[in-house]
Specification:
By secondary structure, this protein is α/β, with parallel strands linked by helices. It has nine helices and eleven strands. The protein has a six-stranded mixed beta sheet. Strands 7-8-9 form a three-stranded antiparallel beta sheet. The chain has a two-stranded antiparallel ribbon with strand order 6-10.
């Protein structure tokens, strides 16, 4: 499977149509995660006809106000995103649709329940997750005042954690860097570049194998990205939940 996800909005890529067409021409499953703001009718029509297999719409918060606060946005963008999702649903054919959102202690139980009930009408699944961390706070990960800004307590470190994601996935950044997982926002988890080498050679290469051995062995404290990865932490009073809305 090829997934268009990461720290960039895939629909901002100027050659996204060519990329989608190429992936599907190879008979591969194709997934996209988007914030939905650029998913106009023309793009929705194209993706459905191209055979997009699944799509996730990424939110923050369980209400319009919290969404705008956490994304530092204003104006009618929330309504535009909802309209875009509804239109995609009306034409989607076989594309799986999912909405994910992250909530904090500022989101009430009633707001979360209302979020699920509202969006269940036009997606297959709604996933509610506890807020983890933003990249820009990672340098101050252990400081309570940073987390207080987002309405939650500082996360607590779990017992020794091993991560096996690098054994079955990789992330390719827009500049061609190949990374161990989707949490690679610095160069610490980069082990090659597709502009310089073939992807299969990078995957089987010594740099990749060394990094996988370290991560899967639980040596996460030595790697900046892994040190603040949400997989290693517990988040008080917020439970992850998946609400399957299929009829």
């Amino acid at each position: 499977m090829v997934r268009f996800i990461g720290y960039c909005e895939p629909l901002m890529y100027s050659q996204i149509r060519e990329a989608v067409t190429y992936v599907k021409s190879k008979g591969l499953l194709l997934h996209m995660t988007t914030n939905g703001s650029m998913l106009n009718k023309e793009m929705s029509d194209f993706l459905v006809e191209a055979g997009l297999d699944s799509i996730i719409f990424s939110f923050q918060g369980a209400s319009k106000d919290e969404y705008l606060t956490m994304r530092n946005l204003g104006g009618p963008i929330y309504e535009r995103v909802i309209d875009n999702i509804k239109y995609f649903h009306s034409i989607r054919k076989n594309t799986e649709m999912k909405i994910t959102t992250t909530v904090t202690e500022r989101d009430t139980k009633g707001e979360i329940e209302a979020f699920v009930a509202t969006h269940s009408a036009y997606v297959d699944e709604v996933q509610i997750s506890g807020f983890t961390h933003f990249v820009h706070v990672s340098d101050h990960f252990g400081e309570q005042h940073v987390w207080g800004n987002y309405g939650i307590n500082r996360p607590q470190l779990k017992d020794r954690v091993k991560c096996f994601l690098p054994n079955f996935e990789m992330l390719i950044k827009p500049n061609g860097d190949v990374c161990a997982c989707c949490g690679a926002y610095t160069d610490g988890l980069v082990y090659g570049n597709v502009i310089d080498d073939q992807l299969i050679d990078i995957w089987r290469g010594g740099r990749a194998e060394k990094l996988r051995t370290k991560i899967c062995g639980g040596e996460l404290e030595e790697l900046e990205n892994c040190r603040v990865c949400p997989v290693r932490y517990k988040y008080a009073n917020i439970d992850n939940a998946v609400h399957n809305t299929r009829k």
